[in-house]
Amino acid sequence: MNRYLILQNPGHNRVYYNLSGELALAELKIATRRLEATCEEIDIVNIKGIRYISFTTKDEITDYDLQVLSRLSFVFAIFKDHDKESDCLIPISKYEFEYVDQKISSLLKYPGKTNELFTKMMINVALLSSDFDYRDQIRLLDPVAGRGTTLFEAVVYNFEPMGIEIDSKSTHACEVFFKKFLEEEKYKHQSNSRRIYGKNKSEAIMVREFEYAKSKQEFKEKSSRRKLGIVNGRSQDAAKYFKKESFHVIVGDLPYGIAHGNAVAQKSNSITRNPYQLLIQCLPGWSQILKPGGTIVLAWNSFVVSKHKLSEVFVENGFEVLNDEPNLQFEHMVDKSIKRDIIIAKKPRVST
């Protein structure tokens, strides 16, 4: 048997790091279902006072397995246990997958921002629970994009992300930050704003789109350009903004009912902090633009509404809610008023 040990990312804040072991186990268990090597004995171990995530395999992990493991949110370093009795660890070089430097999300600071490692975890869980993988040209939608943390984590993975955000100040902040980042990091880029919906100027919903590449030569080839877009609009109107079945995954951090609000009611100036009401209004549209076999992963405050209640909305809209053991291990306290959890729902390839 081969034993592998993963050293967790020290970039977590103290509170998040203390509870992140169980979250890491859940993410890894979901990932191992997609690996070519069969994994067993997935657990947290302590060696010489250092905490590792451990798993064993009969055969050595493959190059593709390493590509998957390297992308997991908690992975800082990977080792192979040469001799379990002597605790001699052999470091394994991680797969270099980043199209954009991982520092991008950590540069962005604002009140209420979700830890970027948690955001990365949600993206991984969404893709690994879908019928797609990292080798596909993934299009991701964040329907409650805020200032763009999910979008920026997606560009690190070389995905094509789009976001919807009702607050014009947030979309402006997202646009300004990303443009400045591309300039400072010397990416060849261009951006434009265009009408994505609306019969006239007064009703127009605009999307700001960026096209970028690492070099001028790469930028000359349109097929080599990467894209990011943000729509200043209402998430319930997603099906009006995008083509049917155009996204592989949808990932979002719903309002917690405490400090974050998103306008989704019939009047554009009406705001709800209730994730249940938001989901009722938005899920039919999200379903239309999600590919069959695609997944939706949402974080929310379970103090405000139960997972059972949110699951009912998904089931009513034809989704399968993934409720087996690793998918139920993500609930954790953020503070005394927020107990965060994620729900994972898959759109069947054949309607039921």
Largest sheet: 10 strands, mixed
What average pLDDT do the residues reach? 91
Order of helices and strands: EHEEHEEHHEHEHEEHEHEHEHEEE
- The 3D shape can be described as globular
Low-confidence stretches: 259-271
Strand content: 25-35%
Instruction: Give the distance, in angstroms, between the N- and C-terminal Cα atoms.
Output: 42 Å
Number of beta strands:
15
**Residues in helices, as a percent range:** 25-40%
Write a structural description.
It is a single chain. The protein is an alpha+beta fold. It is 30% helix and 31% strand. It contains ten helices and 15 strands. The strands form two sheets. Strands 6, 7, 8, 9, 10, 11, 12, 13, 14 and 15 form a ten-stranded mixed beta sheet that branches. The radius of gyration is 20 Å and the shape is globular. The N and C termini lie far apart (42 Å). Mean pLDDT is 91; it is low at 259-271.
Concise account of the structure shown:
By secondary structure, the chain is of the alpha+beta class. It is built from ten helices and 15 strands. Helices cover 30% and strands 31% of the residues.
Which features would summarize this protein structure in a list?
31% strand; globular; 352 residues; ten-stranded mixed β-sheet; five-stranded antiparallel β-sheet; alpha+beta; 10 helices
